[in-house]
Amino acid sequence: MRAGASLRELWLISPKPNPQAALRLFCFPYAGGSAAIFRQWAEVLPPEIEVCPVQLPGRGARLKEQPFTQLGPLIDSLVTALRDQLHKPFALFGHSMGASIGFEFARRVREEYGLLPTHLFLSGRRAPHLPESKPNVYDLPEAEFLQRVRSLNGTPREVLEHPELMQLMIPLLRADFAICETYAYRPGPPLACPLAVFGGLQDQEVRREELEGWREQTSASFTLHMLPGDHFFLHTSRHLLLETICQKLYAVR
């Protein structure tokens, strides 16, 4: 932890802090991503919603920290860091790896504190109880690993073509892929909160039926929204995504 930094300052990067907001929206990034991918969300969503991007170890100002390689310990640390921020209504959004984080965070705070998000938004990730059909990537030799990273189309070209930057990114990407690929779903009761799932119409990584599987994880309402774009449609269809999130949040208030 940086000297003098609180847990909130360490884990949350709020582009527009708003203690008077009616609701907090905690946002969890995809593998290799940082809180910066959500920096424009606060400019689009209304001021009643405080956007709270989560900064995981190994990126941004936490670059020198060791990234997590397993989901369980990451959730332990997240709950400790954010539990004091859950005294007002909150919602969760996560894309790809972030969807697994958001889902398990919701289950943990329900289990430990009896709390539930007003809405759970999960994006670009198959339902957790479905078996993985693809081989692991995180432990591939470097050349094969980089080929797989390029195929996902989520790393900027200027980074991919910069060997020094890629050498800095590889350990973080391997750690994040390990989080996703070693995650073992633990059966439990469905969450009693509305669940909205998003997918990309051109996404080659996650099929529609794998997204539909999330329906089993809620006893409340379930909706599936397919948006234009590949696995990283949260960038190319950002306004459509945020418009839907905003409509859902206002519908449950």
Number of extended strands: 6
Q: Determine the fraction of residues in helical runs and give it as a percent range.
A: 25-40%
Total separate domains: 1
How would you characterize the largest beta sheet? 6 strands, parallel
Q: Can you put this structure into words, describing what you see?
A:
The chain has 253 residues and is α/β, with parallel strands linked by helices. It has one domain (7-132, 186-251): Alpha/Beta hydrolase fold, catalytic domain (Rossmann fold). The chain has helices at 7-11, 41-44, 71-82, 97-113, 142-152, 157-160, 163-182, 208-212, 233-236, 238-251, and strands at 23-28, 49-53, 90-95, 120-123, 195-200, 222-227. The chain has a six-stranded parallel β-sheet with strand order 2-1-3-4-5-6, with helices on both faces. The radius of gyration is 17 Å and the shape is globular. The termini are far apart. The model has no long low-confidence stretch (mean pLDDT 90).
Offer a concise description of the structure.
The protein has helices spanning 7-11, 41-44, 71-82, 97-113, 142-152, 157-160, 163-182, 208-212, 233-236, 238-251; strands at residues 23-28, 49-53, 90-95, 120-123, 195-200, 222-227. It is an alpha/beta fold.
Topology:
Blueprint: H1 7-11, E1 23-28, H2 41-44, E2 49-53, H3 71-82, E3 90-95, H4 97-113, E4 120-123, H5 142-152, H6 157-160, H7 163-182, E5 195-200, H8 208-212, E6 222-227, H9 233-236, H10 238-251
Parallel strand pairs: 1-2, 1-3, 3-4, 4-5, 5-6
Helix pairs in contact: 3-4
